[in-house]
Write a structure and sequence with these properties.
Number of helices: 8
Number of domains: 2
Strand content: 5-15%
Order of helices and strands: HHHEEHEHHHEH
Low-confidence stretches: none
Helix content: 55-70%
Strand order of the largest sheet: 1-2
Radius of gyration: 26 Å
Shape: rod-shaped
Distance between the termini: 31 Å
Mean pLDDT: 85
Amino acid sequence: MSIQLGPEWEAFNRRLQHTPEQMERQMRQTLQASLLLIEADARTMAPQDTRRLLGSINNKITGTYPSLVGEVGPSVNYGLFVERGRPAGAKMPPVDALMPWVRRHWHPIAERRRGVSRVTLRSEAFVLARAIKRRADAVGRFGTMRPYMGPAYVQNRPRIEAAFARIGLNIVSYLAGV
């Protein structure tokens, strides 16, 4: 008895040989789309004083199939403190880092009191830094805590899970030649 395999088998075998590349392509596309969903919502949820934080939110994919890793988040150092707050017992925030904020937000005070010096602005920044530390020590975490990355992920999680679930169906369709 002999078995003859027709052209359908050869086409299926070719598709089977290319399945890893197809899987990687599908995984990369789905991962990139997922990261863009989180990134977009995180940008809208991030505090927008100077827009530096939301401008620094970006994503990247590293690795190769099957070990692809997607990362999304801010590149500025203070992004983590905005997301999670300052832990109790931590040092005060750096006074120099708060100076631009004090200058922007207490500018009307400076206008009313002509001739406000850098020393005065620095002392106001020190008072702010001390207040942030005291609140963090009193309640565990406070001050700069304004989550934006976590909520952006939670909001998009159902869409992301559904997109990854569709990959299996797409691969089966690809193997079937549909």
